[in-house]
Amino acid sequence: MLTNYFGNPYTGSDRIVVICGDISEEVVVDEHIDTIINCAANVKHYGAYADFYQINVLGTQNMILLAKQKKAKLIHISTRAIFGDGAGSDSTHMLDEGQLYVGQSLENVYIRSKFESEVAVLRAKLEGLEATVMRVGNLTNRFSDLKFQKNYQDNAGLKRLKAFADLGVFPAEWAPLLTYEFSPVDLTAQAVIKLAQHDHPDFSVFHVYNHREIPFSQLIEILKLAPTTLEAFINEVKQAANNPEQVHIYEAFLDFIHGQDQHFSQSTDALSNDFSMWYLRQIGFDWSDVDAKYIEAYVDYFREIGLFFVTD
After folding, report:
1. Which of 116, 185, 233, 309 has CB atoms 3.0–4.6 Å from 171's, for a disulfide?
2. What one-character-per-residue DSSP string does 159-207 give?
3. Are 23 and 56 in contact (CB under 8 A)?
4. What residue spans define the domains of the chain?
5. Crossing angle, helix 292-304 and helix 216-223, to 10 degrees?
6. Which residues contact 65 (CB under 8 A, 6 or more apart)?
7. What string of pLDDT tens digits covers the 312 residues of the chain?
């Protein structure tokens, strides 16, 4: 996996040691540990809750136990998706780094498991563990070279865009209202490391996602989508559930159909990372400009591997 993402620079390096194990079981490491960065997660969004619990919740609890045993700092990678659509919250109130439960729906198995893992970490911090939660955004291709995760089929943000591309239509009323967040994974990693190096005991949570969101109108143009009514769009999505070749479209919009979607609710406008952006700038990090050139290269990348069938 290391070679797949980074080539051969680390071959034979004594700085990287692989320890085989399963974080859903108690982890035993004899060596001294300073810091644990827990970014292990089942991110599929759909499936049996027991599968998500094993990795996302029980795995986190085991990392907490290891951190306590080693008196190590724990950096826990979470997701901005834990807010869901913000249902039950005051839509005029900013959902920021100081909040966890605002009445949002936790029916989605992924969101529920990541929420519960945050609860475990924050409780451990109250008990004295040195820990920080970092809620990352929609992780996308590396900014440097467009390289993406090997298991790209499991990426929820990508599956959503593929569903749009395969349908070829969008609800016309969404065009002026929506934005789409792209957080290149290499920039996100740089931000996480900066925060880990400059953490502060008074701050428990950071929102590590790109605040420069892309207008949905740009995606409409790049993906060659045609406008339709919201009712017609919903009908097409529901019909896809009965077609084995299109069921991925229904799955991509499942939360929206059931009113639990975090991407297509105006309440997401109230999600804030102002504090995290300010803090990152103080320690020397700012997000690069993810512009139309990046988005076009992003679509071309997936078109070349046969995921998007977008014609000029």
Report:
1. 233
2. HHHHHHHHH-EEEGGGTTT-EE--EEHHHHHHHHHHHHHT--TT--EEE
3. no
4. 14-304
5. 40
6. 26, 27
7. 889 999 999 888 888 888 888 999 999 999 999 999 999 998 877 789 999 999 999 999 999 999 999 999 999 999 999 987 554 444 456 789 999 999 888 988 999 999 999 999 999 999 999 999 999 999 999 999 999 988 888 788 888 899 999 999 999 998 888 888 999 999 999 999 999 999 899 999 999 999 988 888 888 998 899 999 999 999 999 999 999 889 989 988 887 776 544 444 433 457 899 999 999 999 999 999 888 899 989 988 988 888 875 544
Fold of 14-304: Rossmann fold (3.40.50)
Q: Which two tokens stand for residue 145?
A: 């070279």
Instruction: Read off φ and ψ for residue 37, nearest 5 degrees.
Output: -105, 110
AA letter at 293: K
Query: Which pTM value belongs to this model?
Result: 0.89
